[in-house]
Amino acid sequence: MDNYSVLGRIGEGAHGSVLLGKRKSDDKEVALKKISVKKIEDGIPTAIIREIKTMQVLHSPYVMRLLDHFPKGTGFVLVFDYMPSGLWEMIHDVDSSLTESLIKSYMKMLLKGLDHLHKNGIMHRDLKPANLLIGFDGILKIGDFGQARTMWKDKNGKRPYTQQVATRWYRAPELLYGARLYTEAIDLWAVGCTFAEMFLKRPLFQGETDIDQLALVIKCLGTPTDENWPGHAQLPDFNKISFATSKPESWDVLLPGVPSSAQNLTKELVKYDSSRRIKPHEALNHKYFFSPPKEIPERDLPRPHHDHRTEIKIKELDGANFHMFQDFNLLLDSVL
């Protein structure tokens, strides 16, 4: 840490904290991701080594860059460019409209970044708005590679991975059914959910538990069949729970007021059969990107100010407190 000074705290994660810092050599602002190591006598955890090795092979304007890494006390520190905002903040910023042109720009950058990952044999495994960061130049970058890993290069590709990956609202149905033999297509499902969220301003599938999440997906997309999802009945947890038979909802209902080309792109990503989900390079050639309005040129993208992330979180907290106060007054009125 001798080369950096700490200016404040950005946030907390599952494995440590993220601090705002400054590189002493040139006063560049950076994000310092501190990862705790519970048993230092066991050496550096595989997850940390994997995250570092993963990021070292990635070189894309739409993927976060690892600037430095070093041990610190009983933990490890990863150093990145400081990003003042993210897609989650842009979605929840009530004072700034997330226009269709801007949605198209963010989606294009996300797909380009993901295409780079997959072409380098890397699955992210935790794509969601909170892990898509936005810099001072307005460029969106894929971040947080804590769950990322390289794909097996076996001839048959049949070595298992852990199924305990991805945040629930963006978790592909094969993972919800306990699959350990899966592909990078789990990232495509998450991209489809994120794309829909930019329009809806809320998650497309917002389950409270894993079972509730699966129930919501089935209610919206309809009951899986051998036609739309070959082999689903052989997934590890398929026979552990059953759901009522349902027909798929119309995409006009799932994405009301959303252009048909955007609905179609979401549909191509959010499919039961992972082998049929549209690949990033194919999605970039989808008709959605060639229909009006045009995306915003990168030089004209909205540029978040330094404290945008903190400002949005404070507004969200104030809004939550306001609604809680309203609910309390309503309850009080009903009692009196």
Automatic annotation (TrEMBL):
<keyword id="KW-0808">Transferase</keyword>
<keyword id="KW-0547">Nucleotide-binding</keyword>
<keyword id="KW-0418">Kinase</keyword>
<dbReference type="InterPro" id="IPR008271">
    <property type="entry name" value="Ser/Thr_kinase_AS"/>
</dbReference>
<keyword id="KW-0067">ATP-binding</keyword>
<dbReference type="Pfam" id="PF00069">
    <property type="entry name" value="Pkinase"/>
</dbReference>
<dbReference type="InterPro" id="IPR050108">
    <property type="entry name" value="CDK"/>
</dbReference>
<dbReference type="GO" id="GO:0005524">
    <property type="term" value="F:ATP binding"/>
</dbReference>
<keyword id="KW-0723">Serine/threonine-protein kinase</keyword>
<protein>
    <recommendedName>
        <fullName>Cyclin-dependent kinase 20</fullName>
        <ecNumber>2.7.11.22</ecNumber>
    </recommendedName>
</protein>
<feature type="domain" description="Protein kinase">
    <location>
        <begin position="4"/>
        <end position="289"/>
    </location>
</feature>
<dbReference type="GO" id="GO:0005634">
    <property type="term" value="C:nucleus"/>
</dbReference>
<dbReference type="GO" id="GO:0004693">
    <property type="term" value="F:cyclin-dependent protein serine/threonine kinase activity"/>
</dbReference>
<comment type="similarity">
    <text>Belongs to the protein kinase superfamily. CMGC Ser/Thr protein kinase family. CDC2/CDKX subfamily.</text>
</comment>
<dbReference type="InterPro" id="IPR000719">
    <property type="entry name" value="Prot_kinase_dom"/>
</dbReference>
<dbReference type="InterPro" id="IPR017441">
    <property type="entry name" value="Protein_kinase_ATP_BS"/>
</dbReference>
<dbReference type="InterPro" id="IPR011009">
    <property type="entry name" value="Kinase-like_dom_sf"/>
</dbReference>
